[in-house]
Prior knowledge:
This protein is of the alpha+beta class and 387 residues long. The chain has helices spanning 2-18, 39-59, 119-128, 155-166, 175-178, 268-278, 280-301, 315-326, 354-362, and strands at 22-33, 62-70, 73-82, 86-98, 101-113, 133-143, 151-153, 170-172, 182-183, 196-197, 206-216, 231-241, 247-255, 303-310, 331-334, 338-340, 343-350, 365-366, 369-376, 380-385. A hairpin with a 7-residue loop joins strand 6 (133-143) and strand 7.
Amino acid sequence: MTAIRLTLLSLSLSSLALAQATVLTKEGTGEAAIVNKDEAKAFAEAQQNALRAAVEQAAGVKIDADTVVVNNQLVRDQVFSNTSGYVKSFTVASKKVDKGVVTVTVKAEVITDNLDKDIEAARALVKRMGRPSITVVIVEQTIPLSEKSVINSNTIETVLGQQLKADGWDVINPNWANSKLKVQGGVIQGGTIDPKEIGDLSKVDFVLYGNATMRHQDFDPNVKTENVFPVTGEFDLTVFATDTGRDIGKVVGKLNPLKDPGKQLVSYDRTALNLITSRKDEIIGPLRKQVLEFLRNQSSNGAELNLVVSGLDGFSAANDFKKSVEAMKGVRAASAPKLEKGTARFVITFLGTSQELALAVESSTWKKKKLTVTTLTNNKVEVQVGK
């Protein structure tokens, strides 16, 4: 079975490589001021601005306005620019330092669509986002002809996990969730998924969960071949981000019997594998595309990160801290604080990773008080305000 699963993965990767992503070559220029004589940091910021300019030239820019009015008073009026492109590779064409400002020009290969079809770019994107962790928890069941017993299986779960590993994800073994996984029902009915609860989601950044059912069928009397083992099936799969619980990808489908009798000869298990192989693009492709698009959007337009700040003495202080965070370079927005016992929680839209946000926070002060990062994950930064 291991050899068969590896073959399935190879076929999946080969088919993805056949359809290439659209790549455009563009130049972009960016600037950044040198602060505290840190030219290297200014160069990195200017380079990032140049790459963003190249992406905007290739993919265009969408402008969104966000205006909030409370009690007839304008409390927020922000304009956001969003782009749908992603840098596959780039070279620095020129660098200039003049009057405390670094100017960088890059020549970049920009993907404007079908990121999921470019394996190299997909891996680079996952790496750029800090190699996020994901666990795959799929309740897959096989129903024999008698329907007197249900057999647990894991073919789809295995294939999806292998594909995620191939893309560079940190795939976490789901055994930690098994004791906390509660499934009501057990079989997909009418294409709807059974509700479930998974404990301690702090262990992973994303969860791919769902249901899949393989059903053994009687042979077709019109087919003359002996020992035919027909199989049908259905699946309902979802990916969500554990920090917000937001669904970021979903695919639902049915698996009709194979038309080729030659692929239904050995056993029901072999037919089920052949069936999944023949429909692999419909199962893996759409879900993979949605997840990569989510990561691409985070990379190009800003990731939603949780900022938890301890040591604030009231709501006014928390609101002042929010204004300071919004003024930081790379921060596109900060939610209103949720305050409990001196600890404020914010959702930050940040052009960068949580590690980069942590460095930016620790290099700053708030009302002359030192800021110390005490906890850091791929989607959360916890900060202690000094006294």
